């Protein structure tokens, strides 16, 4: 009889050794970047975490803790640096975990020191304002030949705190080149983190960006005191918007039903740790946006993406009524209650 437990253990050890064979650099020491660093470092992978601010780098080096992840102490395998060149030197895999609206500037700074042959894993979720490019497209534009097409996007339902704590999590790594996605899958699938692969990076990136906008809408509905019916309707119709824009960007509708779409959408719309839902909830309770963001302490990607997603939809001739209403609330002073009423009063249609 085959000892399946033994085989599984050997398989995990094999994956760990493959991961440990090359250094991984993580750009961005927010909650998500720190959580990914802790996940990798805990499993013996040499990883360097880059922090933009010198004071944060110093604090992480001194205390081994990030205030955004209370109770989590960085493993010994995690190095922290504020030196971008040092962070990138010798890395075979570079994870971009900074807020999406900072990606262009950060990658431009990284370009001169970009390690030859390194694969970029974009774990940032957003659509750039003005250019209307996904973060992956921004990376290809900025890094050009240095990147050589070696880019994978990482997305899925994943609160940073749970990843840092080693709780079960499933993500999707998407790339046009399946072998490249599978390579990242093997390197990141350690412990209780399971990574699936996809060849639809466009659909995965659209899903990861739009779910934050829909979560603001759901949060606002909850803050207004509406019930579970309204929440379910917004999530379901929001999923339709994700699928429509994903297809318009060259992705597949089925991707919206996967981890990057439905999985992340449900988590972000209903989880108490969701920043974007929190923003919407407080807006629904009547708080002004500036006050909400000041008290949040984290970046809520949906606030920035609401404008770019709506602009992209208009450019591609796609109707995103929920995203459009969120933009009106955030940037045109529309009251959340009026936005809900306008959604309800739209012309009747087919599903």
Q: Provide the CATH superfamily of the largest domain.
A: NAD(P)-binding Rossmann-like Domain
Radius of gyration based on Cα positions = 20 Å
State the helicity in percent bands: 40-55%
Describe the largest sheet: 8 strands, mixed
Structural class: alpha/beta
State the CATH topology of the largest domain.
Rossmann fold
How much of the sequence lies in strands comes to 5-15%
Number of helices: 16
Shape assignment:
globular
**Number of DSSP E strands:** 8
The string of secondary-structure elements, in order, is HEHEHEHEHEHEHEHEHHHHHHHH
* CATH architectural type of the largest domain: 3-Layer(aba) Sandwich
Explained architecture:
53% of the residues lie in helices and 11% in strands. It contains 16 helices and eight strands. It starts with a helix and ends in a 7-residue tail after the last helix.
